[in-house]
Amino acid sequence: MKVTTFVVFTALGLLSMSVQAQNTQQEKMKTCNAQAKTQSLSGDARKSFMKSCLSAEAAAGPKLNPQQQKMKQCNADAKAKGLSGADRKTFMSGCLKG
Q: Which contiguous run of DSSP H or E holds residue 78?
């Protein structure tokens, strides 16, 4: 039961990160488009501006909530330790609780 619950919560966490990433990308596009419009850019100037605007914001990376940061850190720790299978599940469970 605990393993099933863990798998469900892990899947939900990953799904929410995917949805958040899509929303973040959409927000970047909206923001950059609005800035290009206020500057009345068109053609190559607009294309260049959009490229730099989107890449500058992409470099900042998505903002993770505390639970996502903890999940990311625990995954990185488990990978660094080379854990898999039941050992990984046990480690992840303890890491996420503590």
A: helix 66-80
How far is Cα 23 from Cα 6, in angstroms, rounded to an integer? 26
CB 3 within 8 A of CB 86: no
Which amino acid appears at position 21 of this protein? A
Establish how many alpha carbons lie within 13 A of residue 45's alpha carbon, considering only the half-sphere containing its beta carbon.
7
Q: Read off φ and ψ for residue 64, nearest 5 degrees.
A: -100, 140
Give tens-digit pLDDT for 19-70.
555 667 788 888 888 888 888 888 998 888 888 888 875 555 567 788 888 9
Residue 86, token pair as written in the block: 């039941």
Structural tokens at position 25: 């990308």
